[in-house]
Amino acid sequence: MSVLYDTIGIDYANLRKPDLRIAAQIDAALGDAQSVLNVGAGAGSYEPAGRAVTALEPSAEMIAQRPEGTAPVVQGPAEDLPFADNSFDAAMAVLTIHHWSDKARGLAEMRRVARNRAVLLTYDPAFRGQWQTEYWPGLIGLDDGAMPPMAFFEEHLGPVDTQPVLVPHDCSDGFLYAYWRRPQAYLDPRIRKGSSGFWMIDGVEEGAQRLQADLASGAWAARHAALLERENADMGYRLVIADLV
User: Fold this and answer.
1) Are 57 and 40 in contact (CB under 8 A)?
2) Which helix (H) or strand (E) holds 218?
3) Do 227 and 181 touch, CB atoms closer than 8 A?
4) Phi-psi region of 188 (alpha: psi -120 to 50; beta: other; left: phi over 0)
5) How many Å apart are CA 226 and CA 244, to the nearest integer?
6) What is the pLDDT of residue 181?
7) What would the pLDDT profile of 91-124 be if each residue is shown by its tens digit?
8) Where are the domains of the chain?
9) Where in the numbering of this chain does the Methyltransferase type domain appear (predicted)?
10) Strand partners, 149
11) pLDDT at 29 over 90
12) Phi and psi at residue 137, in whole multiples of 5°?
């Protein structure tokens, strides 16, 4: 993960600005936790205000992009958290588990250091409804291979509450499926650069060329006109909440 994000991380903070609506859902999921460990913290997105947050991030490039005033950060991997048992009220991880080399161990580590709750924003690989795979079919196999199924979280964390995270049409965070109502954004190499998915599949430029042609001809709009009327959409993102006590 650290090697990949040492490359992707350049300009990452400008491409991946936290969306306040998603941030509010994550914050609510943390409940009354006062101390929080943010695993795979990146540049500091979604770290809740008003709580004692400690960040853990493996990539030096990502750490360098953390704004002044963000939570103190420790460099290290999710699979070997350098903290004692029950050090925090809660542990959180936002769109990061697909980069972990050992997902089961990472979840076990979150459970070890958190007294009360674990909160993860992830993606359900069983979800089918994203139009982006029409142009980049490699994303399907990538999601299936990298994202753990929802049952995996209950297996390793115990009973969980799973909530859909609806993506606003004007989402400020440029994660992979954020631009569902703004297809022209995917023509911008800079936008694609902000998502690890586009770094890990073949045929990215070819897919962008097909999308550009369909936008110009009106074919995309004809197939997906209903999306243009929506304020938000379920694109497969899920918030997993586990009470650990």
Assistant:
1) yes
2) none
3) yes
4) beta
5) 41
6) 98
7) 999 999 999 999 999 999 999 999 999 999 999 9
8) 2-243
9) 38-120
10) none
11) yes
12) -60, -20
Q: Which of 181, 176, 177 is nearest to 226 (CA)?
A: 181
Assigned token pair, 161: 């509450």
**Amino acid present at 81:** L
What CATH class is the domain 2-243? alpha beta
**78-90: per-residue pLDDT in tens?**
999 999 999 999 9
- Is the pLDDT at 141 greater than 60, yes or no? yes
Give the tokens for residue 123.
């993606």
Number of residues written out for the chain? 245
- Phi first, then psi: what are they for 27, rounded to 5°? -60, -45
Give the CA-trace dihedral at 165, 48, 79, 239, to 10 degrees. -10
Is pLDDT at 16 greater than 80 in this prediction? no
CA dihedral 83, 160, 5, 11 (to 10 degrees): -110
